[in-house]
Design brief:
131 residues; alpha+beta; 31% strand; Dimeric_a/b-barrel; single chain; globular; Alpha-Beta Plaits; seven-stranded antiparallel β-sheet; DUF4937 domain-containing protein; DUF4937; 3 helices
C-alpha cells in the first residue's frame, strides 16, 4: 500500500476555482489501484489545502501519474503554489478517515519535517475507489 500526503497553498482569489476543479478528482474512483482520498482546508490557515490518499501499490500509483493524472490536474493549473508531497509505503490497508477534521500532527507515518496542518475535510472531496 502507498499513502500520499499533499499540501499546497491556494491564494484567496483562486480558492473558488480551485475548489470547483477539486470536485473533478471524483474521477479517481474509477482508476485501477486507487483506494480512497480525503481532502480539505487547514483549520488554522485558510489558504492551505491538503489531501491524503491510499493506493494499492506503487505501480498502480505510477500508472496513474503516467496516465490520467495530468488530465485531472489540468483544471487547477495556475491556481496554487508551494506544493509539498510525500509518498509513504505502508504495510497494510489504512481505513479511510471517517471524521470531519483530520489531525496528522502525531502521525509516525510522515517525517516530522512534513507540514501536517489539521484539515477540515470537505465531504464532497471524499472519494472511494472500486478496489
Amino acid at each position: 500500500m502507498l499513502l500520499k500526503w499533499i499540501t499546497l497553498r491556494v491564494p484567496p482569489a483562486h480558492r473558488a476555482g480551485f475548489a470547483t476543479a477539486q470536485d473533478g478528482w471524483r474521477a479517481l474512483a474509477s482508476v485501477p489501484g486507487f483506494r480512497w482520498q480525503v481532502a480539505g482546508w487547514a483549520v488554522d490557515d485558510p489558504d492551505r489545502f491538503g489531501a491524503l490518499a491510499l493506493w494499492e501499490s506503487r505501480p498502480a500509483y505510477d500508472a496513474f501519474m503516467a496516465g490520467p493524472h495530468d488530465g485531472l490536474a489540468a483544471g487547477q493549473v495556475g491556481l496554487y503554489r508551494d506544493v509539498e508531497s510525500r509518498l509513504v509505503e505502508v504495510g497494510d490497508a489504512i481505513a479511510c478517515p471517517n471524521v470531519e477534521r483530520l489531525r496528522l500532527s502525531g502521525w509516525p507515518l510522515l517525517p516530522a519535517s512534513v507540514p501536517r496542518p489539521e484539515l477540515m475535510l470537505e465531504p464532497r472531496w471524499r472519494v472511494f475507489g472500486k478496489a
